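From the thread on structure requests for the teaching lab: each student submitted one protein with a one-line request. Submission from student K.M.:

"Model dCMP deaminase from Dissostichus eleginoides, tokens only."
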Amino acid sequence: MSNYRPLSLLNNDYKVFAKILAFRLEEVIPSLVNLDQLDTKYIYVCHAELNAIMNKNSADLKGCSIYVTLFPCNECAKLIIQAGMKEVVYLCDKYHGSLETQAAKRMFKQAKIPFREFPPKETEVVLKLKSV
Ligand SMILES: [Zn+2]
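Reply posted by the TA:
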């Protein structure tokens, strides 16, 4: 229990870190970001894995499995490895030929974190909003 930290403290740490990083990058970002990237979503969004890891509902993720829709990219693979997770379960390996996915698989293998596809038994989920 000595390393236990309430989730709200972790979120505050993350917000403070993000703010410091933003201030430090402010001067160099214009030269790092190509202008035609500014109007795309890709440089603004964080991947679901980062969001899940930063907003976890436990003290840490050591020994946990992560279930993802798409195979994690290389950046998320680094986070998963650093978080001490034990397994990656994915639904689809849509970008299996990309450098990001190849690098992620290489890192998982080096870190001895197994990954496996989750074959769903059902192909759809029906949600009835009205029961009449
Ligand atoms: Zn990612």
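TA comment: The longest strand covers residues 65-70. The pocket of zinc ion is lined by residues 47, 49, 72-73, 75-76 (CB under 6 Å).
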